[in-house]
Amino acid sequence: MALKDIVGNEGAIRLLKMACAKGKVAHAYAFCGPAHVGKRTTAVQFAKALNCLNQVADGEGVDSCDICQSCKHIDSGTSLDVQVITPTAHQDEHEEVRALSIRVDNMRRMRSDAMLSARHSRFKVYIIDDAELATEEAANCILKTLEEPAHNVVIILITTNQMALPRTVISRCQVVRFGLVPAHKITEALVNRFGMESYAATLCAKLSKGRPGLAFAFAKSESIKDTINEAKRLLEHIIVAEPVEVIKLSERIIALGASLSKILPSSSADAAEPERKHALRGIDTLLGCIRDNLAILCGMQAEHTMTHFAEEAPKQHIVHYEPRCLIRLTEALMKARRALMLNANVQLTLEVSLLRYVYANGRN
Ligand SMILES: [Zn+2]
Questions:
Q1: Ligand 1 centre and the CA of 246: distance in Å?
Q2: Over the stretch 289-299, which tens digit does the pLDDT of each residue have?
Q3: Mean pLDDT across the chain, nearest whole number?
Q4: Counting C-beta atoms within 10 Å of the first and last residue's C-beta, which end of the chain has fewer, N or C?
Q5: pLDDT tens digit string along 189-225?
Q6: Residue 314 has pLDDT above 50, yes or no
Q7: How far apart are CA 88 and CA 106, in angstroms?
Q8: Which residues pair with residue 102 across a beta bridge?
Q9: Are residues 9 and 181 in contact, defined by beta-carbon separation less than 8 angstroms?
Q10: How far away, in angstroms, is 18 Cα from ligand 1 center?
Q11: What is the 314 CA–ligand 1 centroid distance (Å)?
Q12: Å from CA of 17 to ligand 1 middle
């Protein structure tokens, strides 16, 4: 692939192609935006365009040829001049929690390597993924490298949280913003790139909520339909649940999130407690199903909802829930979500939220 194949974020892509064409390449970039929208892929494709032996000019600037020796080396990760640095896991001082971070030793190695001239390419490119996870020492080392920019060295910091990076670092970078991608563009890419049927492509695009990286992961998965159908069955059970069932249902919410986690690409958030992550993903999927049901109640055609596409025989399976039940359950799940984000006990939070919903329902 090349820069032209990135799905969405056309403004960012145009800016990078122009920089290649005009030779006005910044010493450092900060690619900022939500996770899974293509920041890292774009960084690698930009490195290819900078170093391509047969650069291709188009109306917007310069792109890579994708087939020369340099492009192939970068694609396979064997180029000595283009490095992707990712956070590594380590234990904290109590040797309990495994956290991911960009370590200072990695940054020192990058700094001394950046002093040497490129081996085979025009530019040496260092891509630092999840740069906000740099330790204080590592961030200082990045700052020193940015303060004394070496010739033909490009550093690309990738972050989902620009505010978590020191201002002194960001101010030395050209900030390139990335955003969510419209569903129809993701659908189109899935049909053209994966040869998917359009209904399946639409499902993956809707589930990804504007994140092509997730949509591609869904597209490769065979179990996505089963997962969505389990979410719908679980919603049916929760809506009419009795108090005695809440422990089992809480476990099913966590299991639902766990099966989604198997499909989704790993990210820095994976260092968090797995049960909490699964619970949050389970809740989000249920909220998606509820949103579909509310949309149908508000007059939207079932064919346009996310979960419709997972059904074998959708029309026979539309359940019409009481709107007040859906609203109460949404409130209970949102409350649980907030508590889980604040580190509340996972199982207890889910059980109490479901009980609150069940008892509130019983009063009417
Ligand atoms: Zn090339």
A1: 57
A2: 888 788 778 87
A3: 87
A4: C
A5: 998 888 777 767 877 887 788 999 999 988 888 777 7
A6: no
A7: 10
A8: 134
A9: yes
A10: 17
A11: 47
A12: 14
